[in-house]
Amino acid sequence: MTTTDNVDNESQEIEDKKLSVKNVAANDISSTSDELIGWINSRRSMGNLDEPAPTRAQIESAIECAATAPDHKKLRPWRFIVTQGEARHELGNALVAAAKEKALKEGEELSEKTIKKTHTMPLRAPVIITVVTQMQEHKKVPPFEQMLSAGAAVQNLILALKAQGFSTVWRTGLLCNEPAVKAYFDVGPDDYVTAFVYTGTSPKDESKRKPIDIEPLVRFES
Predict the structure, then answer these.
(1) Residue 171 assigned to a binding site
(2) Which of 194, 195, 197 has its CA nearest to residue 167?
(3) What are the coiled-coil residue ranges (predicted)?
(4) Is residue 45 marked as binding?
(5) Hey, where are the domains in the chain?
C-alpha cells in the first residue's frame, strides 16, 4: 500500500469518527422557553433503576449531546465508557479491589457485608456510563477548565437521557479514583473518573422539586 493510500485511509477514519451533531435553530424548538426551562428544572436524581434501558442508538445520541459541552480549544478532554450486562460484575470486582486496597492503607478490614454491597453497586441500574477526563497540555486551557468541561458534558448527557424518557443518577463515591478503578477504566494518574451515570427506568415517579431561592446564590453588577 502506498503512503498516499495510508493518508487517505487515516483521513477517512477521522471523518468516520466525527460526531453527527444535528444543529437545531432556536426557532425550531417546539416547546416554549418557559416549558423548556420547567422541564430542565424538573430533573431529579433517581436511584435503583430497572429495565428498559436505553438502546445503543439512544446512548450514542445522548453522548453526541454530551460532546457539545463548552470545550475551550475543542480539546474534547472527556471519554465515555458504557458498562452493561455481565460487565457490571467486572466493574464490581474492580470496586471491591479498590475498597480492599483503601482499607489496607487505612489499617482497616472489610466485612463480608461491605464486600458484597460494594460488588453489587453496579447492579443498581442496567446501564452505567462512566465519564472520565483525558486532560491535554495546552497553554490556554488549564486543567480546571478541562475538568469543568467534563462536568458540563455529564449534565448534557443526563438531560439527553431524560429527553429520551430515561432516569439517571450521577454517582461517584470514595472509590471512583482509587488506583484499581482508574486502572480498570485505563485512566492515567493525572486524570479522573468524574461520573458514574446510572441510567434506566425508575419504578417511581420523579418527585416535584421545591422552589430554589437563588437570591443568596447570585450577585448582579452594573
Answers:
(1) yes
(2) 197
(3) none
(4) yes
(5) 33-200
What is the DSSP annotation of 181-211?
Answer: HHHHTT--TT--EEEEEEEEB-SSPPPPPPP
Is 172 annotated as contributing to ligand binding?
yes
Burial of 43 (0-12, 13-18, 19+ CB in 10 A): middle
For cell 417511581, name the residue. Answer: 204
DSSP 90-135: HHHHHHHHHHHHHHHHTT----HHHHHHHHTGGGGSSEEEEEEE--
| Residue 88 assigned ligand-binding role | no
d(CA 38, CA 6): 51
Amino acid identity at 33: S
* 81 SS3 class: strand
79 assigned binding-site residue: no
The confidence band for 31, taking pLDDT boundaries of 50, 70 and 90, is low
Which range is least confidently modeled, 28-32, 57-61, 163-167?
28-32
The whole-angstrom separation of Cα 61 and Cα 41 is 22
Q: Which residue has the cell 457490571?
A: 88
Mean pLDDT, range 35-51, rounded to an integer: 94
Name the CATH architecture for the domain at 33-200.
3-Layer(aba) Sandwich (3.40)
- Alpha-helical runs (H) found in 2-123: 3-17, 33-41, 56-66, 87-105, 112-119
Burial (0-12, 13-18, 19+ Cβ within 10 Å), 60: middle
Query: Is 72 marked as binding a ligand?
Result: yes
